[in-house]
Amino acid sequence: MSSTPSITKPPAEQTGKLSKLSIVGYGAGDAANNLAFTTATMFLLIYYTDVAGISAAAAGTLLLVVRVFDAFADLLAGRIVDKTYSKRFGKFRPFLMFGSVPLLLLSVATFSIPQIGETGVLIYAYLTYAALGLAYSLVNIPYGSLAGAMTQDPGERAKLASARTIGAMIVGAGLGIFVAPLITPENDLQSIFTFMTLGFVVVGTALYFFTAFTAKERVKRDVPKVTMKQSFAILKSNKPLMLLCISSFVFLTGMLALSTVQLYYLRDVLHALPLYAAFSILQLVIVFGLAGFVPRIVRTFGKRAAYMVGAGIMGVGGIVVFLAPPSMVWLGFLGLVICQFGLTLVNMLVWALEADTVEYGEWKTGVRAEGIIYALFSFTRKTGQAVGGALAAYALAWGGYVAGAEAQSVQAEWGIRAGAGLIPLAASILAIVVMLFYPLTDKRHKEIVLEIADRRQKAGQDTEQIDPALSTAAFTAQRPPVTPVPPTDTTDKNK
Q1: In terms of pTM, does the model score above 0.70?
Q2: pLDDT for 309-327, tens place per residue?
Q3: How many domains are there within the chain?
Q4: Residue 399 sits in a domain of what CATH number?
Q5: In which element (H, E) is residue 226 found?
Q6: Residue 372: CB atoms within 10 Å
């Protein structure tokens, strides 16, 4: 007779419950990430067009090419992560500790283009942005993978997803409140970007190290280092991951188009650039307002349904942004706020959905590989960002946007409105359609987690106790059991 998992109430560390410090620490990591990422998303196109003197069409091609390169860099980073393991610091935290300073210094270089002729400026922009993308992959892939290694509890994962969204939004709001209002023709924009990115080196390094020492890896793994063959087997059999990747690709296309041109929309269409600061404050209100409800939303409706609702809300906002007459500033601004509400909800849920696919892959193959799974997910998101950013730039070029002009033509305004409204609308509809076929419900995920733990116990491994809330009758394994591995002491002596 096989034994069933223990249902005695275990210590908090074993049930997957996280301390407030570890949740805050994890959120600090995405704040650090977005000192580089959101700065580039919000300001790099306008830096290229208005400071470096690169045409909108050439900048759009640059963003497309380099972000596609970034996507492939994510796959490389995922393989490096899965092949790496440190007994002292774990699998993911060393990358945060040793990759942070190079990443942040490359952000300085990206926003410091010397005037070395048209061709020289373009080459420098390609090289520095590509290097920034590679460095970002080597930090962000381990950071994103870390959530799945911290806990398997759906509610706790929702908290981690909310924490990273809050961290990102605080940075985005700070940039919107303090930096965006300065992006006017009469200011010395090069000095603004140089001093800002240099300050981020100090702040970002401190945040990354805070994450590394508070967000600890606790989920047991059978295979510390994953082979290439195992990686491909995991990806090939993971249908939920594939569908989530496709949906995220199209959603990110709309989201990046919006975030890339929303400054243009407020400045050149609504002629209300000071509202950018108010919009950034509202972003924080939305994030903190939603953060407290996301775990409850997940428990009540499930992550997939909430994700689709969020995408739908962004689509509604896109309609308003596109159709609002420039004279009705309040309506256009309201459209941006509606978009922000929807994309915030999706961003709070998508990371928890991605972490669930890790257990699905382990259930299918017997191998846990956070690195390659997060890398593929990030790959598709990066390609979505590449397409979205490029489409936004091409929309500017189609409209005939003129850098530094006091007023844009009517067609240029329509180009901006298409980038900020029409593209997000189309992307949200496609993202919802794809998620209709997503099979990994929260109930099924709980069953899979229980079954994995049961397999380990039957294999004679020292596994994590099962939370009584997840415990049901033992499930019959639908895959061959994992090959037994002798018990090992996996305790990190430095925790």
Answers
A1: no
A2: 999 999 999 999 999 999 9
A3: 1
A4: 1.20.1250.20
A5: none
A6: 28
